[in-house]
Amino acid sequence: MSARYGREDDLMARYRRFALGAVAWVVVVSAGAALVWTVISQAGADVAGELPATETQSQASSAPPANPTRSAGTGAASPAPPGPAKPVRRTWQGSAGVVVSECRKSAIDFVSAQPASGWSIEVDHTGPVDVRVEFEAGEAKTRVEAVCVGGVPSYTVEDD
Questions:
Q1: Is the peptide bond preceding residue 84 cis, with omega within 30 degrees of 0?
Q2: Chain Cα centroid distance, residue 28
Q3: Which of 13, 25, 41, 154 is 20 to 30 A from 57 (CA-CA)?
Q4: With contact defined as beta carbons under 8 Å apart, do 154 and 145 qualify?
Q5: DSSP per residue over 76-128, as a string?
Q6: What does the pLDDT look like over 64-107, one tens digit per residue?
Q7: How far out from the chain centre does Cα 110 lie?
Q8: Which of 137, 141, 88 is closest to 111 using CA atoms?
Q9: In Å, how far are 19, 20, 26, 148 from 9, measured between CA atoms?
């Protein structure tokens, strides 16, 4: 009878080792997947920058604050002092590639540019007056220029 219990104990030990191995595998795969997801998400954010703001967001950012503050002693409501202007980001995308820039009032800043496959890129101006990026693919050339118009990046494109 003790031989029977010995075999059952050995079988139970195998099941425990198998279950422990399966749990360890799930933990390692989950940790690896989370790490890969984080790295890819960060790399994508670095390449593409943030998504461009919608018209509604840019209009809302230029509106005065909704909650007024009280002036000391008078009891009259006055608007809260405006904070620093939030940048408005826009993206141009064409067959040559992508350019991202943002305006803070009338100053424009270059954020990023990525050429399409087969194109090369040269960033000529990065702000604060204008942004200029040139794309080249063989004899084809595309020049993308951006300036702030009303606090929003406005792109013009010239193809050669």
A1: no
A2: 28
A3: 41
A4: no
A5: -EEPPPP-PPPPEEEEEEETTEEEEEEEETTEEEEEEEEEPTT-EEEEEEESS
A6: 444 444 445 555 555 655 666 789 999 999 999 999 999 998 99
A7: 14
A8: 88
A9: 15, 16, 26, 77
